[in-house]
């Protein structure tokens, strides 16, 4: 059996999966303090201790992913103060001395789509989540694209739409993608949550413009095989077509991408992407241990 931990800012989703990557049990705990939340996580996996061979963790961040770093496996400079400098992998290793895969929450979802979803069989896959925040992960031939740290693609700058006077809600950058297009930025502008807005709300074409700018930047930097947009905001399914149109306008024929309907897509696994990604990463960690 493999364990999966999707560690999010509001909740932790833990699951158990078998060799076929079938989810056997899944539970969710609120993200409070490391002491409280991790006690629940460890209790959950202790039930399976005899069968558990590896664990995959996809965590909110920023996190330290450098194996030779003294703080490998830590959540580092998160604004969630209780979790700053928390030794996540170390805490899990102490309770379960088995192989543990460690990556960002969005990389885990990207991996799920890469192995089982819209990225299956492709060599270069980029996944974004547009939700409470915006995060992005990229895979090349099964490996995460990273250098001194994991990417922070959700904070790329976007050019403000001429009809949008919103200054952006990112405390670091103002008008970055997250500051302009994440769920809370929509709510701040319009006084309503994204899910309360109707399909013909004119703002959606502005939102699509920002997501298209993201797809444009991604295309020029990585030329991936597919770009997947998930997260709560993308549950507005009409958005993807608006993004296609804005994207083609921005690219303006400069690069010949795959057919846009197959190139800019929504996830196949929906809310299972993170769990399945963590399970598959756990399996990889065991294989290479
Ligand atoms: P999280 O990012 O916290 O993991 P989600 O991906 O579900 O969770 O994102 C939550 C955000 O998405 C909230 O800001 C919410 O208002 C927005 N959201 C959720 N559902 C929809 C919807 N159907 N349409 C537009 N926005 C939505
Ligand atoms: Zn930002």
UniProtKB/TrEMBL annotation:
EC class: transferase
Query: Keyword annotations for this protein?
Result: ATP-binding, Carbohydrate metabolism, Kinase, Magnesium, Metal-binding, Nucleotide-binding, Transferase, Zinc
The cofactors required by this protein are: Mg(2+)
* Reaction catalysed by this enzyme: D-fructose + ATP = D-fructose 6-phosphate + ADP + H(+)
Q: Which SUPFAM superfamilies match?
A: Actin-like ATPase domain
EC identifiers of the protein: 2.7.1.4
The text of the family note is: Belongs to the ROK (NagC/XylR) family.
Q: Which PANTHER family match?
A: FRUCTOKINASE, TRANSCRIPTIONAL REPRESSOR MPRA
The family database entries (NCBIfam families) matched by this protein are listed as: FrctkaseScrK (NF045550)
- Supply the name of the protein: Fructokinase
What is the organism field in this record?
Enterococcus gallinarum
* Gene (UniProt): gmuE_1
């Amino acid at each position: 059996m493999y364990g999966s931990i999707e560690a999010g800012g509001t909740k932790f989703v833990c699951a158990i999966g078998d060799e076929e990557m079938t989810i056997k049990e899944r539970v969710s705990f609120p993200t409070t303090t490391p002491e409280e939340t991790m006690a629940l996580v460890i209790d959950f996996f202790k039930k399976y201790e005899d069968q558990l061979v590896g664990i995959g963790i996809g965590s909110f961040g920023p996190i330290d992913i450098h194996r030779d770093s003294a703080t490998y496996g830590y959540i580092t400079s998160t604004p969630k103060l209780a979790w700053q400098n928390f030794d996540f992998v170390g805490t899990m290793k102490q309770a379960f001395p088995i192989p543990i895969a460690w990556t960002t929450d969005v990389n885990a979802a990207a991996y799920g789509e890469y192995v089982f979803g819209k990225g299956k069989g492709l060599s270069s896959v980029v996944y974004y989540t547009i939700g409470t925040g915006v995060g992005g992960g990229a895979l090349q031939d099964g490996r995460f694209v990273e250098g001194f740290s994991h990417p922070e693609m959700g904070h790329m700058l976007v050019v403000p739409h001429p009809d949008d006077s919103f200054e952006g809600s990112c405390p670091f950058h103002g008008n970055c993608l997250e500051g302009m297009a994440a769920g809370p930025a929509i709510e701040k502008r319009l006084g309503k949550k994204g899910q309360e807005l109707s399909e013909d709300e004119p703002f959606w074409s502005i939102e699509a413009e920002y997501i298209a700018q993201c797809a444009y930047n991604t295309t020029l930097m990585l030329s991936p095989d597919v770009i997947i947009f998930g997260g709560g905001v993308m549950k507005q399914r009409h958005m993807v077509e608006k993004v296609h149109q804005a994207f083609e306008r921005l690219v303006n024929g400069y690069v010949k991408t795959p057919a846009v309907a197959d190139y800019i897509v929504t996830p196949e696994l929906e809310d299972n992407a993170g769990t399945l990604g963590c399970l598959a990463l756990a399996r990889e960690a065991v294989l290479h241990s």
